[in-house]
Amino acid sequence: MSCYIIKLRYIPDTSNDEFVNFGVIVKSNQSQEIKVRLTNNWDRIERISGDDISFIKEHAKQIENDINDKSADLGYMST
Question: What is the DSSP letter of 24?
């Protein structure tokens, strides 16, 4: 089965190569099914950020909700 993968990544400082993946979106090329997975552990992002990361969590949750809503409209389960 082939699929398209999108990594959800937090990059606190674009001047260096440090980043943390906090989720993944996978879309099947055959069935068009879309699934999303988010981290349950935000500790590393909090450590490297040094700031409040609630905006990242909120944005990630919105992405997850949007994909779930779209997948439900298409008749797919996406969690």
Answer: E
pLDDT classification of 45: cutoffs 50, 70, 90: very high
Helix ranges (H only) for 1-79 are 43-49, 54-74
DSSP 8: E
Q: Give pairs for 59-62: CB < 8 Å, separation 24+.
A: 60/8, 60/22, 60/23
Cα 69 vs. chain centroid, distance in angstroms? 15
What are φ and ψ of residue 49, in 5° steps?
Answer: -80, -50
Q: What pTM did the predictor assign?
A: 0.76
CB-based burial label for 43 (10 Å; 0-12, 13-18, 19+): exposed
Q: How many Å from the N-terminal Cα to the C-terminal Cα in the chain?
A: 19
